[in-house]
């Protein structure tokens, strides 16, 4: 998943037809959020000592990353606390919203999702407040962290088995970064998409050699 999100950050920086300014976190970030959550609930100031989290949010930790203050939203990997299931989340600053894209909406119900993502819903606003990013929300006038509005979206095509959740995370991210201006077939061929992703990761493995102002080819973000 980290390799795929590295690829998505490349697209956000260098890709064509990218509608939004975006960046991502990685799998370590979501694990760290869950790890510090019990301590955070006792003392929110623990975030001030978590320089590794702050480095991700300021764009200093991950290749091709951007500071959160400079983007429209952040794509995050989430594994909830109550299910072994990868989900994509999108943190939007101006609306102070965390949208969670659940690819197993029929079996993993919204109320269970809300339970499973509690660490993110609690910690992320405090992290945003610590960095001053909350001020991008025009309705934000508080000294303390404002609670995130959570939206659970299961309207996109859903997986049909119990092991393709990671593929759907990548699929959703590629779809959303172009503002939905591409189609996702309702009968999505996950096996074919896996092969396409492997080929693209291999092809662009030497992207460091590219100049920043040299765009990646359009095929790098083809979904169908």
From TrEMBL:
<keyword id="KW-0645">Protease</keyword>
<dbReference type="GO" id="GO:0008234">
    <property type="term" value="F:cysteine-type peptidase activity"/>
</dbReference>
<dbReference type="InterPro" id="IPR003653">
    <property type="entry name" value="Peptidase_C48_C"/>
</dbReference>
<dbReference type="Pfam" id="PF02902">
    <property type="entry name" value="Peptidase_C48"/>
</dbReference>
<comment type="similarity">
    <text>Belongs to the peptidase C48 family.</text>
</comment>
<protein>
    <submittedName>
        <fullName>Sentrin-specific protease 1-like</fullName>
    </submittedName>
</protein>
<keyword id="KW-0378">Hydrolase</keyword>
<dbReference type="InterPro" id="IPR038765">
    <property type="entry name" value="Papain-like_cys_pep_sf"/>
</dbReference>
<feature type="domain" description="Ubiquitin-like protease family profile">
    <location>
        <begin position="1"/>
        <end position="176"/>
    </location>
</feature>
<dbReference type="GO" id="GO:0006508">
    <property type="term" value="P:proteolysis"/>
</dbReference>
């Amino acid at each position: 998943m980290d390799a795929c999100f590295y690829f998505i950050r490349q697209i956000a920086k260098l890709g064509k037809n990218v509608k939004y300014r975006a960046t991502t976190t990685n799998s370590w970030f979501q694990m760290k959020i869950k790890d510090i959550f019990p301590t955070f609930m006792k003392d929110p100031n623990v975030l001030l000592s978590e320089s590794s989290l702050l480095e991700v949010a300021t764009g200093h930790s991950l290749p091709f990353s951007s500071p959160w203050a400079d983007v429209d939203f952040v794509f995050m990997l989430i594994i909830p606390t109550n299910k072994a299931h990868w989900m994509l989340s999108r943190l939007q600053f101006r609306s102070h919203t965390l949208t969670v894209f659940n690819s197993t909406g029929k079996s993993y119900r919204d109320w269970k999702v809300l339970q499973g993502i509690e660490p993110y819903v609690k910690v992320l606003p405090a992290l945003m407040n610590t960095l001053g990013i909350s001020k991008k929300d025009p309705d934000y006038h508080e000294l303390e962290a404002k609670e995130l509005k959570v939206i659970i979206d299961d309207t996109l095509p859903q997986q049909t088995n119990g092991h393709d959740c990671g593929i759907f995370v990548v699929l959703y991210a590629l779809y959303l970064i172009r503002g939905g201006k591409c189609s996702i077939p309702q009968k999505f061929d996950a096996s074919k998409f896996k092969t396409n992703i492997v080929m693209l990761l291999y092809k662009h493995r030497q992207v460091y050699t590219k100049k920043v102002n040299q765009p990646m080819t359009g095929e790098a973000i083809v979904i169908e």
